[in-house]
Amino acid sequence: MNLSNPDFNPGQFQRQESLSGLGRIKPELYKQRSVDAEEGRRSDSCGRLNFILKFDFDLEQLIVKIHKAQDLPAKDFSGTSDPYVKIYLLPDRKTKHQTKVHRKTLNPVFDEVFLFPVAYTELSSRKLHFSIYDFDRFSRHDLIGQVVVDNFLDLADFPRETKLCQDIQSVTSDNVDLGELMFSLCYLPTAGRLTITIIKARNLKAMDITGASDPYVKVSLMCDNRRLKKRKTSTKRNTLNPVYNEAIVFDVPPENIEQISLLIAVMDYDRVGHNEVIGVCRVGNEAESLGRDHWSEMLTYPRKPIARWHPLIEVWDVVGIDTFLCCPMPKKTVFLFLVNTH
């Protein structure tokens, strides 16, 4: 590794190694525990969801009736759950419906009807997304699982009333609620310069009581799950759809580019309390699916900015996030470069 480069400082490794022992915060200890966790395993069965779909041509709207859920897993220590369902017609995240919470049951009967205005011709590009949650009054609600329905036009009885019963799929995070971030990646091998341009975000999760957030983006240069450098964008006030167009540059020699990754977090600024993480994503050879593909495309086409939308995921789902959360912000000045979008 080229230790003469300013973004590859061996002192960073020594300081962070000292954090690995006593006194290091371990976020996993603060996660909500479920009955399955007590048994040392995660149940494969998440139950089933019964619902009815119908399309109204006169009003141009999709009618969704959530009838009931069956055999849900117990998420509370009492052996029950307090389930409710959120529903979206993707890719639109602004229109969200939610059922009432049903207390202490694994077989809730909802019988609630929701309407989504949409043209029939658009249904082929839409997906219906159900997220089943366990309500918790004092902590983060526990995601039980999800059901996704696409290819509406292929359903046997649709657009007439169509009754469906689908298995609830186990998932670790509900990306729908967190929003998406668009950024571009560009690498110049001759200059050893890696540029990530934070373009904009959309449909971010509301973190304030006003129903909005004050988002900024924090980018960390990572190597072996250790943070080498960190930069951040400006903060955009009172919005869930911020536009940044800000570029962040890291010096990364060609011989090191395969060893590093970028951990990107969208944060909500709080003037009084602690800044909160809205959601995160990661790009690099060790990243998952889209993050790895985006990185590979950047390396395949050097000197060309490659822009992609990335869904934000829960902070707990990213390897190395404990380092990301625990390390203090450097006091040195952060340099950002405005990108001309015209």
TrEMBL record:
Its main location: membrane. InterPro entries: C2_dom, C2_domain_sf, Synaptotagmin. GO terms for cellular component: dense core granule; exocytic vesicle; plasma membrane; transport vesicle membrane. One of its GO terms (molecular function) is phosphatidylserine binding. GO terms for biological process: calcium-ion regulated exocytosis. It is found in: Cytoplasmic vesicle, Secretory vesicle membrane. The keyword Metal-binding applies. PROSITE patterns: C2. Gene3D superfamilies: C2 domain (2.60.40.150). The keyword Transmembrane applies. Keywords: Calcium, Cytoplasmic vesicle, Membrane, Metal-binding, Repeat, Transmembrane, Transmembrane helix. SMART domains: C2. Residues 45-168, 177-310 form the C2 domain. It is a single-pass membrane protein. Belongs to the synaptotagmin family. PANTHER family: SYNAPTOTAGMIN, SYNAPTOTAGMIN-9. This is C2 domain-containing protein. It comes from Mola mola (Ocean sunfish).
